[in-house]
Amino acid sequence: MTTRLGIGLPQNRQYDLGKDVPDVARAAEDIGYDSLWVYERALFPDPRTQPLYGVPGLPWPDAYRGVAEPLVTLTLAAAATERVELGTAVLVAPLHIPFQLAKQLATLDAASGGRVVAGLGSGWSLDEYAAAGVRPFEERGKVMDEVFEVCRAVWGPDPVVYEGGPITRIASAVVGPKPSRPIPILVPANSPRAMRRLVDHADGWLPYADGPAQVAEGWRQLQDLAAERGRTGPLRTVVRVNPDYTPKRYEGPDRRPFQGDVEQIVSDLMAYAGIGLDEFLVDVSWAARDAQELKDVAAEVYTTARAAGF
Asked: Where in this chain does the record put each Luciferase-like domain (predicted)?
């Protein structure tokens, strides 16, 4: 069985969003990709008050200046495509009002014919939490649980009733539109508590590709935990890959990407092939200089990966 492949959509400031998002989305679907993905970076602190991911000394990349809102980006892609899934990897769920987020995801799923995949994470940026003002950073776990519960309630049958969290109160209401099908919820889950939340409440795992051994071990731990907690349903897996793609200065008119970089990307993907994971999301949108280069690299990655049997 061929591993599914997804590609990241253009969200960064080098792109013309209204033109480039539909253009890249259509091209990726025509190439053969199975899914299109967005991520969330709500702001860029200037001056920087916190290191990237909270890791001392790690700077914020300039690519994070001016990242387009993820669900608006997916809506542009949905209108331009017919087949590909539309995923978030990840949406920082506690930055959003749970009820409004559930409604947005349901509406997008209904409009796209059942193609949304909700990758949800808790985030790490103190500045983003302060700006969003939903709940304090220290309550992110509670908010994540409430988002899961509110989504399931809002997406389920009417009347919708919910009183389980500190933010949301739904006495009894008709809430529509409903999703075209149950929207799968994926979470990164790289800690024991997050893995328990995934096993108990989510549909799959969305790890970062930090090495085949690390991902394989995380997948083993997750499967063991699922068996221990009596989970019988399958766990979907989508691995996010942010390759170190460096654009080459083109000399000719064909604008073809630097083949060596593409070969390295595919070589890195092949190292994960034996783990038994469902799908890989390759995102070079942050590094490509424009939409044409992003389409060129996406086409060559897909062709090279399929030729290698991935």
From this structure: 19-241
Output phi, psi for 42, to 5 deg: -70, -30
H/E segment holding residue 187: strand 185-187
Within a 10 A sphere around the Cβ of 212, how many other Cβ atoms? Answer: 15
Per-residue pLDDT tens over the stretch 152-197:
999 999 999 999 889 999 999 999 999 999 999 999 998 899 999 9
- Work out the number of other CB atoms within 10 angstroms of the CB of residue 183: 20
Please state whether the predicted TM-score (pTM) of the whole model is above 0.85.
yes
Considering only 57-66, 172-181, 247-256, which range has the smallest mean pLDDT?
Answer: 247-256
Contacts 24+ apart (CB under 8 A), 67-70: 67/11, 67/12, 67/39, 67/40, 67/41, 67/42, 68/11, 68/12, 68/17, 68/21, 68/38, 69/40, 70/11, 70/38, 70/39, 70/40
Estimate to the nearest angstrom the gap between the alpha carbon of 106 and the chain centroid.
17
